[in-house]
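Do me a favour: review this protein, sequence plus structure tokens, and tell me how the chain folds. Record follows.
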Amino acid sequence: MNDPKSTGRTSSDAAARVLIPTSWEVPAIFRDRLGNQVGRQRAMVADGHLLLILHSPPEPDEHDRQGRLFWRLPDGTWKVNCPESPVKSLHGHLKEYRERIEKLEEQEEVARSADEYFQVISDLLPLHRAARNMHAALQIARQEIKDAKDIINFRDEAYDLERTSELLNADAKNELDFIVVCRAEKQAQVSYDMGVSSHRLNVLVAFFFPVATLSSIFGTNLIHGFEDRNSPWLFLAMLASGLVCGLLLTLGITRKARRRK
């Protein structure tokens, strides 16, 4: 009868070996240091062999990272294992990052609203982190393997990707902050204008309040002789005059606010 613990270890070891193709004759320490998942981006060096564990460019709202393995033999040849991508070289891997960043640059250039800038930032943040960690892994590989021009070039290209994504992220944040500040300034100006208008209306109400109160208490139905004359044209003329006066009063109250705009 099989031991359950032994069976569990066998399946776990098999899952770990899937990350590195069985046809790769890499140093045993590489397989021992890999778990069941890809983990963070990093570089492993042993006996002149280099194994880069990198991530594919992350998609928006993607939580699980897809791993890509790049094995450099002591003679300088490379082998690639990217099961979820048609990438066949480390150069193609970096090119895919660059294309994604350039696409976000185009979106940032045409963005005008806060929602559009926020979308650019949201899509760029995981890409920037991945580029930064990839550059760190290539920097370690550069330090471990001396006089490897190809690794130097890859490291420099990764740094350029990290720097480009960092600058794009800063530009998008600045534009978003500018939009927020402009909206806050406009809202403050509108609130100020409304406060001024409210104050003026309160002054008018206070001025006429005693007359309105006395009229309500004692009444003002005076006999003026126009009760039955030219009905209803006189009433309509009075109503039109009141509307015109109200319009003129409104224009006078809001005149300064319109001049500031």
Remarks:
- The beta strands are 42-46, 49-55, 67-72, 78-81.
